[in-house]
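Q: What does the assembled structure look like for these inputs?
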Amino acid sequence: MTTIEDFTSQYGLVQKIDAFGYMKYLTENPDAPCKHGKVVLVTADTPLKASRGEGKTTTTIALIDALNKRGIDAAAVLRQPSMGITAAGSKGGASGGGKASLTHPELIDWGLCGEMGAIEAAQNLLVSFAEKAIDEGKLDTILVPRVSEVPSRSLRSTAVDYGKGNVPEKVVLTPTCELMQIMVLSRSMDEISERVSKMIAGTKDGKAVTFGEFVDLWRITGILADAVKPAKTETVNGSPVYVHGGPFANVSIGIPTLVSVEMACALHDVVVVEAGYGTDAGAQKWLDIACREYGAQWPSAAIVVTRASTWRDDPELAWRYPFHVQRLENLDIPTFPLINLWEGEDDQVPSLQATADELGFRTPIVGNLFRDGGEALVPQLDGFVDALQNGSMPAEPHSHKGMALTENAKWVAENAYGVPAERVIYKPGFTESVSKAMELCQSAGISLDNLTFVAVKSPATMTDNDRAPEEERTVTLKKVEVHAGAGLVHVNLTTSLTTPMPKIV
Amino acid sequence: MTTIEDFTSQYGLVQKIDAFGYMKYLTENPDAPCKHGKVVLVTADTPLKASRGEGKTTTTIALIDALNKRGIDAAAVLRQPSMGITAAGSKGGASGGGKASLTHPELIDWGLCGEMGAIEAAQNLLVSFAEKAIDEGKLDTILVPRVSEVPSRSLRSTAVDYGKGNVPEKVVLTPTCELMQIMVLSRSMDEISERVSKMIAGTKDGKAVTFGEFVDLWRITGILADAVKPAKTETVNGSPVYVHGGPFANVSIGIPTLVSVEMACALHDVVVVEAGYGTDAGAQKWLDIACREYGAQWPSAAIVVTRASTWRDDPELAWRYPFHVQRLENLDIPTFPLINLWEGEDDQVPSLQATADELGFRTPIVGNLFRDGGEALVPQLDGFVDALQNGSMPAEPHSHKGMALTENAKWVAENAYGVPAERVIYKPGFTESVSKAMELCQSAGISLDNLTFVAVKSPATMTDNDRAPEEERTVTLKKVEVHAGAGLVHVNLTTSLTTPMPKIV
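A:
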């Protein structure tokens, strides 16, 4: 009998799985035994700053440990942290901590099996081929950026062929690039190949030229051969954890690869998908991008993590947490608040429970997950398990394909950030940026309104000023960037950086 | 009993070996069983152009297959090809061909296990830390380049912080960078760490500042944790092949990691090390850098590969092949000419043998190794095996440490390229470049003359014009670059590029 083991190979201390192959096998063998796991989203309050996590990964790990302890076959799917950021010391890794840890966090944090390096090489190779196309007269402007896994603020604005051509460029962080998005959204190597061929390399006489017009696609898929395989590791308690695909829900789509989630659903009854930074970033993107437009499974439950201090110590921002919980409940997703306590906060449990009660939340799950791991959760999960087991499989959400870009932006502002359409502001230049994107799409034979909307924003804010009174909050639309291969259109909002390339600090 | 298996783990279709750990184990357990294999160098005639190989890897693979067939335990150590160059289509892979192939050439050619990506990230992270040091006033000029695995001519001259600071930079090809050299030359992670700490990051008020002064070294070694492990694969006939370390004997040191060769010598009786491009590049560097200055084993025999056409079809360059063979014989290395035939050249064997005889060569080994693999070699190796088995272990060569840089350059020009000292020319600016390097070294507390000389040159030429008559050939010294961490000083010669960053073609 063919099993997942036939698609699995050891790769040092982790395993790599040929998920494309396994899912193809299941499609071709509809009678082969497989599970139909439900997706649970672990997301969070909007963080006070990007470098301060609420504990989503810690929660995810503790949650699957607790579910497994309760006899439920649960696994987690995590995004691969950006090694550049971790290695530079700008933030900690993203692999849990304390009793809610992975067996080999250092592998996850420090480059895993070279996936990011492969994507970096492949995207940079595309740029080199575009330069060659310029030399050959097939292209006059390049629109695809080079990438670097390592942050460096000075790379936000660069010039190549300096002293002669002085061609201005920018370098973006590898995990945020279009090729990473393509890997995240594709369900086969053929789809990757097709999407790369549709990537707009640049323009010739103002008209879009795609990579399919001049690149041998096998060169790119050759580089990605191992990178497309999810890694499998486990928690210190033996719960399975899959790691695959890029982070950065602020400046990109910030979700794990769809194939890794679907594979996990075929293997386990509950699949916990981590979606951060906050609900306004990772969860919004899972729901409105992955589920609405790319056929991912609508979550059967959600957990919204916060720290006691994030929730309550800054009164001006205290509206955000209940807003997130309410938004998910309104989408018919049973949503459980989870407060991840830090050392010395145990005495706050009664008051936190009282606040949750006042706000009309479900009974909150509270624990020091770093200290106590899944043990802290086991007795608190009755309601959660009940919602999961007795809820019906969710219906397919409505697609926004065909909705005008600005309408889509307004819809997201209203639904995900609480700002009504009339307070969505166009920054000078935005309308021109939309027109330009529209022309570019037309010249490539696609419609801008059929691309999926990706909000590019700061992880720590939803509006131009989250501290303003509700009726004064605005969202400013700044500029537009087309990722035709991935099928996405990025719109920069509010205080977003125009180039996703952090400074090391 | 502890064996190499205890240091080996599966990594997809190849294995990775903790060579540092195994060699440490052998040092600490002098009675543990191990072999004392002899090193054989497979090198080549100077190629007519860089993209046209003579067939060194094909020969290396056929040779170990033939030796194993003769009952001799032989393994090969190959350098990891540069994926960027291969994927860009600028040259074929470097993993043999036809019957002289590896089981999984695609792995070797397409990024192996992410080693190059890790080195790229680590070297680029060093540059980012140097930028941070500038912000903090610890540094005012950066001397370490960023790297890219993917070739792109426009990266030879770049500017970062463009539009504001306009800081000129260059980007070099990852496999040629100082961090790759450090990995190639180091025998432990501690040595890597120490060498990185001695790398000159840049200057402050004209004085050298090293990375040890401001970087947490564990961040760099963390990234390199898997990259330092040699990969093990095999030929289609089952002979063991280790792959580790960067190529590019033209612009860098172009040798596999010393630890991979030493590990192979502890495991096998004969270890074939591929050293290319030609004898003037790879072999010169194995002998004069690895053996003379870094304690590598002097070869017990050498094979110099050529193609019939390279050797004889260009009369002006026909002096090079016998020059190489003679140079190695003069160094007491039994040297066997090997002519790698292509389709349709079988009838040339008698005339090739006659030419070899005229030139006073040992009996040449001749075969179509792509078509026939090791089978073609088995009956021709009596003399080679005899030289290997009956030769004594070679003596340690003399170090050139303390020899003035220019004397060293003249010594190499005379011995490796056949150009006497009086025809070594200083290009305008060279003397100033030496003085500057000397001052830089002094300010770092090291002596320029204790660094090991690395010739940076075109792979296809040894002199300013190899076609000139012997008595008119010159070598021009152009400029100097210090790699204090690796312990090397690069000197650009003749027609070398000043930045190792090819254009894709």
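Chain B has three domains: 4-114+227-390, 115-224, 405-493.
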